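Translate sequence into structure tokens.
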Amino acid sequence: QVQLVESGGGLVQAGGSLRPPCAASGRTGSIATMGWFPQAPGKEREFVAAIKWSGGSTYYGVSVKGRGTISRDYAKNTVYLQMNSLKPEDTALYYCAADRGFPVANGGLYDYWGQGTQVTVSS
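Result follows.
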């Protein structure tokens, strides 16, 4: 089993930045891919970023391309999502996910999920 804990969300003004971390524990040696999937009220979860644990290849959704960067820290078993130029439409509960395979953008295939961290962007 893998446990994921997101943090670092909060209230930020439009144009600002956030860098929420997602810390993994448990059988972290089994993780191959980690991703971020925000869910806004009344909407489905959306893919924004994923990273392959070995090699560090990164993948981005259209909504954050050019504004977001996903990175990992091996020593801390932590993934970060740097988000810049935040917009009110980025407001959502941001979930972190992990998998032993390479589902990348397909949220339905990830095995492990955190509880989410709330990001609110004011105009």
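Note: The two ends are 40 Å apart (CA to CA).
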